[in-house]
Design a protein that fits this description.
The chain has a single domain, classed as NAD(P)-binding Rossmann-like Domain (Rossmann fold), CATH 3.40.50. The chain has eight helices and seven strands; from the N terminus they run βαβαβαβαβαβαααβ. By secondary structure, it is α/β, with parallel strands linked by helices. Strand 1, helix 1 and strand 2 form a beta-alpha-beta unit. The longest helix has 28 residues. A seven-stranded parallel sheet has the order 3-2-1-4-5-6-7, sandwiched between helices. Helix 3 packs parallel to helix 4. Nicotinamide-adenine-dinucleotide binds next to helix 1 and helix 6.
Length: about 250
């Protein structure tokens, strides 16, 4: 599965799943552009990849702004000359309120980051990939892009939107050698998003109980699927949203 000579962008690469995806792309031999709003951790991860002999560069970007997404892709082309893979992973958990109590600001923020951010990224990544004959995009959805959960209307709507955007773009670019898929993790441990929940043993037991495997997933279990979807091993897979969820969606 060598990605030698290839270039990958990973958004939300400063922590959790995105950090793990960036490290795995680099391990497979790709040059990696890590992007995030959290500059300190992103720079540190890029430095660690370089120290391990890989190629990596951190580009700060707030992906809720289309111009930042455009600049991120331009920077990748300037730095490494091409773009082959993108994992559009940046996201937030947002408010925990039922629909009638969800704030307007909270709604706008989560749609801007978790949904519009993915659209902006693909809008600029696709033309860059077309320049060199194709590529593969993996968007980070969630099991909550397939089913609802009380108290997270913004997150659930945004992730359902990511699945729809993925299918649509996949159809549009299937004949242009760009495969576009999504992955749908259930609850994943060791990320900023779940760290606060996991601090409480009662909550941790409850979260584990939602998964038939009775545990949360690990970032590397999601990253492995992203790498496989990016690789030639997935050469006939496009427009899919693949769960990595310990059986969550099978209940
Ligand atoms: N952890 C889970 O249980 C879980 C489950 C399903 C899906 N996901 C999805 O996985 C993705 C990664 O989340 P994670 O769990 O690794 O959490 P995380 O909080 O550790 O990582 C998210 C990253 O996105 C970055 N980010 C947030 N807003 C941004 C913005 N406007 N511009 C650029 N970067 C921004 C954060 O700084 C952070 O580094 C998210 O899209 C999340 O919705 C997570």
């Amino acid at each position: 599965m060598s990605f030698s000579g290839k270039v990958a962008i990973v958004t939300g690469a400063s922590s959790g799943i995105g950090k793990c995806v960036a490290e795995l792309y680099a391990k497979e031999g790709a040059a990696v552009i890590l992007s995030d709003i959290n500059e300190a951790s992103g720079e540190k991860t890029a430095e660690q990849i370089r120290l391990a002999g890989g190629k990596a560069c951190f580009i700060p970007a707030d992906l809720s702004e289309s111009s930042a997404c455009r600049r991120m892709v331009e920077a990748a082309l300037e730095k490494f000359g091409r773009l082959d893979y993108a994992c559009n992973n940046a996201g937030i958990g947002g408010e925990n309120n039922p629909t009638a109590d969800y704030s307007l600001e909270g709604w706008q923020q989560i749609i801007a980051i978790n949904l519009s951010g993915v659209f902006y990224c693909m809008k600029y990544e696709i033309p860059a990939m077309l320049q060199t004959g194709g590529g593969a995009i993996v968007n980070m959805a969630s099991v909550l892009g397939q089913v609802g959960i009380a108290g997270a209307p913004g997150y659930v709507a945004a992730k359902h939107g990511v699945v729809g955007l993925t299918k649509n773009a996949a159809i549009e670019y299937a004949a242009h050698n760009i495969r576009i898929n999504a992955v749908a993790p259930a609850f994943i441990s060791s990320t900023r998003m779940t760290d606060k929940l996991e601090g409480n043993p009662k909550v941790q037991n409850f979260l584990s109980s939602l998964h038939p495997m009775k545990r949360l997933g690990k970032p590397e279990e999601v990253a492995g699927l992203v790498i496989w979807l990016s690789s030639e091993k997935a050469s006939f897979v496009t427009g899919a949203c693949l769960p990595v969820d310990g059986g969550y969606l099978a209940r």
